[in-house]
Each structure stands twice: as C-alpha cells, then as structure tokens.
Amino acid sequence: MRRKQWLVVAAFFAFTFVAVNQGGDIARFIADWELGSAETFGAEVPKRIDLAKLSEEERALYERIVAEAPERRIEPIDARVDSVWKAIPGLNGREVDIERTFTLARQQGVDKAIPFLYREIPVGITLEDLGAQPIYKGNPRKPMVSFMINVAWKEENIPAMLDILREEEVKATFFFLGSWLKDPEHMEIAKQIAEEGHELANHAYSHKDLSDLTNAQVRKELEETQMLLQEIGVEHNQLFAPPSGDFNENTVRVAHEMGLHTILWTIDTVDWKNPDPNSIVRKIGSRLEPGALILMHPTESARDALQGMIRAAKKKGLAVGTVSNTISPYRALSVETPPGF
C-alpha cells in the first residue's frame, strides 16, 4: 500500500475509533468528518465564500470566524528522538476550516454559537523519518492510552477480558508469540479477537532474549510470526514487541528493515507476579498520562484489574485505543468521565 493510501486508511480508523469512544460526541464526529476533513480524504471542497453575495449578518458571521481562527490554531509537533524515551511520535496540529465552519454556522443560524470545524495540519517529521528507534510511549500531548496485551499463555482468561473491552467499548492491541499462535485452537482465539475489532501484532516466535541472537535469527523469529498473522488475515502489521522487553540496536534495526516498529511500554502492570488486582488499578491509575502504553498479559490479576484500569483512564479524560491509534500523529478527543466518578 502506498504511503498516502496508508495514511488515509489510518486516519479513518483513528477518527472512527475516537468517535465510537465519544458516545454523545458521535454527531459532532460525523459533522467533522463530512464537513471538516474533506480536503484530507478527497471529498469535494466547498468553494470559497463570495462575500459580495452575503447578507450583512452573514458577512459579520464570516468575519467573526476569520478573526477567531488564529487563536484556535494549534501548531503540529514533530516526531523526535528523546534521550530517555527514544522515539516520541509527532502530533498533527489543527486549524479552523473557515469555509466549512461558515457553511455550517449559516445553516444553523447566525444567532447561534459558532460550531467550529477543523482540519489537521500534518507534522513535518514522522516516526518513519526517525529511523530505527524503539517506541515507549505516544505523544504526551495526545489524550489517549493503550493496553498492550502480550499473549503467550493463560488463554483461558482472554474471553473474560474481551467481555470487559466490549462492555467498555474500547480496543486493545494483542501481541502474539508465534509458537503460541500456531496452535489451531489458539488461532481461533486470535480470529475472535480480530473479529472484536482489536489490533493483532508480533511478539516474535519464541520467548527468547533477542539480544542474544544473530540478525538472521531475529529476522526468522519475526518473519515466522508475521506469516502466522497473515494466515489469520492480518496483512499489514507494523508492530513488534520483543519478549521480556529484551532487545538491542540490531534487534530494532532488523525490525525496522522489515517495516516493524519496536514497541516497549510506559507502565508495566507486572501482572505475571500475580499482584492483587486492586493494587494494579491503584498503581496504573496514579501513573496514567497521555500517550501511555500499558503492558499486561492475560493473567488472572490483569483480567480482574482491566475494567478498573480502563475506568481510571476515562476518569482522567483519556481515550483508550490501540497502539497504532496512540502512536499515530492524528489528534484524539478526550473522553467524558464515566458514570459513577
């Protein structure tokens, strides 16, 4: 897929995800999509407003929009390499779409509050421009977090976790160990996860320390799992999480050559030690921040803490999306505080 086409598809899913998680903001999303993003996605762009054909009230409305637009502009933030966190994704800026804002405002009535619509301003430097760098978090100005679930055992807990994700209307990213995934029964579990709309990604083939392997061995580990993912319909996976978080520069370089981002984590639940689920919720809730990638596994502790962690994120106004959503440059709306908080 060409880069431009990929960006269009990624944008659609990023915006769609945010809309679904916004609940009452779906109508606004549709308006933004139909009226505010046409230039990005190829829809017909309204002609420039002919001021001479406007009434006095309409012209005043148009001038108000033009006057306020500079104050509402947000500059894009380029991707960069941090000395500690390594690759930090960029975040698109935004600017008022004056023509569409005016068109919608005029339809609603010049005496109503102006329904500002925006278009995104692309970043100048993307993650791809940074080369072979690991990623530990999304952009700290993007109000979205991700749960990355590394799957190599404890599949009996996955159905309950899927129930929670469905109930909370959020998506997660599941990283599969290839040697686990190749089992026919496990493949069916993975297909169900995909059918639920979650993201499926690469966790290498065997649970080895990849820093101890040659480049050829690392490539084989990743290629075998990529092929298994393709067997269940994942054609364009771009994410790889090294087992145990073990990697070196060669690991990242090989993954980059294969078109894979090396994904680490911002916060670790350490659920493999079987801590009390309430302690996980308290720990994650206190450390959640925009762009956080939260590491977990399908353990009993994580299963029982999952809903509490999701609600802690929502309480902080953070959307919960896939890793690809969170590290993309597309902007995300924050979510409303859930009932009960």
Give the topology.
Blueprint: H1 3-22, H2 26-36, H3 38-41, H4 56-72, E1 80-82, E2 86-88, E3 93-96, H5 98-108, E4 118-121, E5 144-151, H6 158-168, E6 173-176, H7 178-181, H8 184-195, E7 199-202, H9 215-231, E8 239-240, H10 249-257, E9 261-262, E10 267-268, H11 277-287, E11 293-296, H12 300-315, E12 319-320, H13 323-327
Parallel strand pairs: 5-6, 5-11, 5-12, 6-7, 8-9, 10-11
Antiparallel strand pairs: 1-2, 3-4
Helix pairs in contact: 1-2, 4-5, 6-12, 9-10, 11-12
Brief summary:
The protein has 13 helices and twelve strands.
Task: Note down, in words, how this protein is organized.
The chain has 341 residues and is of the alpha/beta class. It has two domains: 3-128, no CATH class; 144-327, TIM Barrel. The protein has helices at 3-22, 26-36, 38-41, 56-72, 98-108, 158-168, 178-181, 184-195, 215-231, 249-257, 277-287, 300-315, 323-327; strands spanning 80-82, 86-88, 93-96, 118-121, 144-151, 173-176, 199-202, 239-240, 261-262, 267-268, 293-296, 319-320. Strands 5, 6, 7, 10, 11 and 12 form a six-stranded parallel beta sheet that branches. Strand 8, helix 10 (249-257) and strand 9 form a beta-alpha-beta unit. Helix 1 runs antiparallel to helix 2 (26-36) and helix 11 packs parallel to helix 12. Mean pLDDT is 87; it is low at 1-45 and 336-341.
